[in-house]
Amino acid sequence: MSAPAPHTPALPVTFRPTRTRAVLLTSAAAMFVAMTVMSLLLETLSGGERGSFILMAALFAGVLVLLSRPKVVADDTGVTVVNLTARRRLAWAEILRVNLRPGDPWVFLDLSDGTSLPVLGIQPGIGKARAIRDAKALRALAETHGTGADSPGATRDNG
C-alpha cells in the first residue's frame, strides 16, 4: 500500500518558523524595553551612558529581529528564499530536491547547478511537525512545478 500523496498548497504560499519568530520578536521587544527602562531609572548614569545603554539594547534587539527574518515564498514562477542576510530567487526548474533529513537544522534545496541551498525558513527547532509538513508541501510544489518530478524518490525527510 503506497503512502498518500502530500498536499500541494495553493500559490502563493509563505513558509516560516512562526513559533521561533514569535519567541525572537517577543524577546527582542522585552529586552529592548527592559534595558531602556533600566537605563532611565539608574540615576548614576550620565546622558551619554544612558544613550549607549539604549544603543546597545537596540543592537541586541536588531540581532534578534535579524534572526527572525528567514522565510520561503513560493509562487507560480518559483521560490524566494530569505535567510538571515541574503535573499535568493529560484525558478522552479532550478530546484532538484527538497531535503529535510533527521538531525538537519533546516531544509536544504539541491539545485541544478550542483550546489545546495540552506532554507532557514523551514526548521524543525521548536516546531518539528510543522517543519516536516512544510518541507513535504515545498517538495510537492517543486515536483509539480519544476524538474523534481524527473527524479523520483530523490527527496527524503524525517517524517
Brief description of this entry?
The protein has helices at residues 18-41, 47-67, 128-145; strands at 13-15, 71-75, 78-82, 87-91, 95-99, 107-111, 116-119.
Essential attributes:
159 residues, four-stranded antiparallel β-sheet, three-stranded antiparallel β-sheet, single chain, 3 helices, 20% strand, 40% helix, alpha+beta, 7 strands
Notes on the structure:
Helix content is 40%, strand content 20%. The chain has helices at residues 18-41, 47-67, 128-145, and strands at residues 13-15, 71-75, 78-82, 87-91, 95-99, 107-111, 116-119. Strands 1-2-3-4 form a 4-stranded antiparallel beta sheet, with helices on one face. The protein has a 3-stranded antiparallel beta sheet with strand order 5-6-7. A hairpin with a 2-residue loop joins strand 2 and strand 3 (78-82).
